[in-house]
Hints:
Elements: E1 6-9, E2 19-23, H1 30-41, E3 45-51, E4 60-62, E5 65-67, E6 70-75, E7 87-92, H2 98-115, E8 119-126, E9 135-136, E10 146-150, H3 153-161, E11 170-171, H4 174-186, E12 190-196, H5 208-218, H6 229-247
Parallel strand pairs: 2-7, 2-8, 8-12
Antiparallel strand pairs: 1-3, 3-6, 4-5, 6-7, 9-11, 10-12
Helix pairs in contact: 1-5, 1-6, 2-4, 5-6
Amino acid sequence: xxxxxxxxxxxxxxxxxxxxxxxxxxxxxxxxxxxxxLVDKLELELVGGVRHPKLPPVCLVQEGKPLPPMRFYSxxxxxxxxxxxxxxxxxxxxxxxxxxxxPLADTLLxxxxxxxxxxxxxxxxxxxxxxxxHSIFDDDQTNETILGIGSTDxxxxxxxxxxxxxxxxxxVGGITGVMMGESRRRGVDVMAILAESEGSIGGGLPDARAxxxxxxxLDDLIPAVHLDPEPLLEEAQRIEGEIxxxxxxxxxxxxxxxxxxxxxxx
Length: 266
């Protein structure tokens, strides 16, 4: 019997009271841009990752160094949450396969509980229209929408303080949907912020502008990420370029090869 996913991080990592920010693949590469921005801006250090036989047998390479497909970063920027004096970032450019969504969500939520983290924030995005991973039934037809989901009253208050309106109705799929559902079942404080994006998963353009809107939302939560709007967008566009270069290397075989993973974001 195959064991579930395992979180393996540096033994000296102290996650007590940390804000965990989770960035899994999203429409328009929004969460990836946010993750790369936070690593750069907050000078976060790689501290470990997630291991499982069914994760893609690849590593990412950045500046000549290999990176696991699902990795943990840590740092101690100034944070405005009551219990947050450090950040732990979970980043991945690899689409989580459906059969791993629940085991991975359980593993991450168990780890957060065991380590005594302060709160968990999921970064994601959506595109209006039929056939998307997230079906958002909001009445805003613009492309400037930011929406939030919270598992507890406390997370609702945090989102309100950040100026993020709650999603009233919708269906959220993938690892974000599973983690939100499981966190409410467990009574764990988890929130998600989703930006409307014109991009797509499995093609289309990275959406630096949508990522910049999320980063601006985080400004009140983590003062160290503050930048004026235009420089912030320029920085997000620079990271977009880096992600394009990483995506240029096909880390997963094509869909017609018989491998169920398909393309990197498909």
